[in-house]
Fold this sequence. Notes:
By secondary structure, this protein is of the alpha+beta class. The chain contains 15 helices and eleven strands. The protein has helices at residues 36-50, 64-79, 82-100, 110-122, 127-145, 163-172, 181-190, 198-207, 211-214, 259-279, 319-329, 338-351, 356-363, 368-375, 380-392, and strands spanning 4-8, 11-21, 24-33, 222-223, 228-231, 234-238, 241-245, 253-256, 286-288, 294-295, 301-303. Strand 4 (222-223) and strand 5 form a beta hairpin. Helix 13 crosses helix 14 (368-375).
Amino acid sequence: MTVTARKRGNSWEYRFECAKIDGKRKQISKSGFKTKAEAIKEGAKAFAEYNASGIRFIPTEMSVSDYYKFWIDTYCKVNLSIETVKNYEKKIRLYIIPSIGSYKLKNITGVVLQNILNQMYENGYSRNSITVVKGLLTGGFSYAVEPAHFIKDNPTLYLKIPYHMEKENSLNKKERIAITPDVFHQILSRFPFGTTAHIPLLLAYYCGLRLGEAFAICWDDIDFEKKTLRINKQVQNADGFWRMKPPKYNSIRTISINTLLCEELKNLLALEENQRKELGSLYRELYLNEKNEIVASETDHKIFPINRKEDGSYSQPRIMAHAFRVIHHELHIEKLDYHSLRHTHASMLLEKGASPKAVQERLGHKNMKVIMEIYAHVTPSMKEQLNSVLEEL
């Protein structure tokens, strides 16, 4: 490949070929130079930059753009959920392809990839966005080494989140708080029975459910006689639809519920039955389609979620964003979020002497480490208990 120059109007343009994309020839060009010599000079610099990171091992001439399409098709679509694949494709299109898509896969070095993350940090992107892109670079290029054997060495081995962002994250790590029963009753006074946020708040505080799990509960998951609740699914948003899928870590479990929650759920069931009778044919029935999306159009799979509006339509997890705005600004409980209620539930169980293993299983955590690190919240009563034990030594 060589750099050529041609006149475009009153200025000169340089041009050279780059890696093919979709099997088609592609060129890099830039115009606006006053003379042919200036265009050739700048073109040579650009061409050298383009080829600056060559690797001796050359098994393929594939562009980064074509490679990531290959990676999505051969690995991601086979092993990951539809939602995850769509999210990956979006992030690749927005952050990776514009930076290195036209370059040859074999020419990419760690410095080039680190610069992508550094530039994202300089441009003010969130730590979450940078972490996702880092994962896509690491996963994609690792697959290119093994099993694809497209490149010999992995340029992501020393890839790091920018140092200052790691430092900021350690200083600004979100604090999970545990609230007292009095504070929770204050919240319930603002969101009493009959409001859409009431039952989801109870499910977090008294059961430790995740947000997606709370909004996936259906009436056939509840056994009022045995006072148990089966958690075997969660909801996630996908392209504007709420889709049922297995819970996080596939943590299917059946847990006990207390009398208070059991009675509140019975009251809710009675309320929904009255609303159904009053509205008759106007009451909206809910179904799952072939993608497990919650829809109002009739299918063979009718469902009865407990979180519904007065007309029967699905009450979505997004309603909790409004509830917590009220909690933050009206009730002045500023640090609380839905996960903090889950944290509170675990802390209360541990404080009352429940075994960490039982708490882990109840909350559906993958391993004990999470319970011990996140939920072993030292409360005043725990400190008093420790002091009593010390006196007995």
